[in-house]
């Protein structure tokens, strides 16, 4: 529990870090790390519409966009408000890993491409290409090489 509290404290202390150097050239919350990804959520919070232009990361990351929209609706629109979702999701992941829910890591590995390493195509020379088969070998993982 102490690790979670320490981690949350350290991660939450500087939510407004990396300020813009020139206030006249900033474009709201879009200049920081999360900025481009929160564009549609910001539009929804400020103007009540998801789409105001052709920059639409909501189609790439709809869950993140919805969570950011909820954060903006709850806390207002700004840099620290945009960073509350990554902080909360990071803390949730740490909590799950510490509680032994290691399947979360396996799932992340699968999403990030680990499953691609476990796939292999079996194509014996004595069969036609139409009978090639794709086999999933769930018993082997690149981590097993260690």
Describe this structure in words.
This protein is mostly helical. It has two domains: 28-101, no CATH class; 108-145, no CATH class. It has seven helices and two strands. A two-stranded antiparallel sheet has the order 1-2. Helix 1 runs antiparallel to helix 5. The longest helix is centred in the middle third of the chain and has 15 residues, at 84-98. It starts with a helix and ends in a 10-residue tail after the last strand.
Overall strand count: 2
Number of domains: 2
The largest sheet is: 2 strands, antiparallel
- What is the N-to-C order of secondary-structure elements (H for helix, E for strand)? HHHHHHHEE
How many H/I helices? 7
Any idea what the radius of gyration is? 22 Å
* Termini separation: 31 Å
Question: In percent terms, what proportion of residues is strand?
Answer: 5-15%
Model regions low in confidence, pLDDT < 50 over at least 5 residues? 116-138
Strand order in space, largest sheet: 1-2
């Amino acid at each position: 529990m102490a690790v979670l509290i320490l981690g949350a404290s350290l991660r939450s202390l500087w939510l407004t870090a990396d300020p813009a150097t020139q206030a006249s050239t900033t474009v709201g919350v879009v200049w920081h790390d999360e900025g481009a990804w929160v564009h549609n959520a910001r539009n929804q919070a400020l103007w009540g519409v998801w789409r105001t232009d052709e920059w639409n990361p909501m189609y790439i990351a709809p869950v993140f966009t919805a969570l950011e929209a909820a954060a903006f609706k709850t806390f207002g629109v700004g840099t620290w408000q945009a960073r509350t979702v990554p902080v909360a999701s990071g803390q949730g992941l740490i909590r799950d890993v510490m509680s032994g829910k290691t399947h979360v890591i396996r799932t992340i590995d699968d999403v990030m491409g680990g499953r691609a390493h476990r796939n292999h195509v079996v194509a014996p020379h004595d069969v036609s290409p139409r009978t090639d088969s794709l086999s999933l070998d769930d018993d082997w993982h690149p981590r097993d090489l260690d």
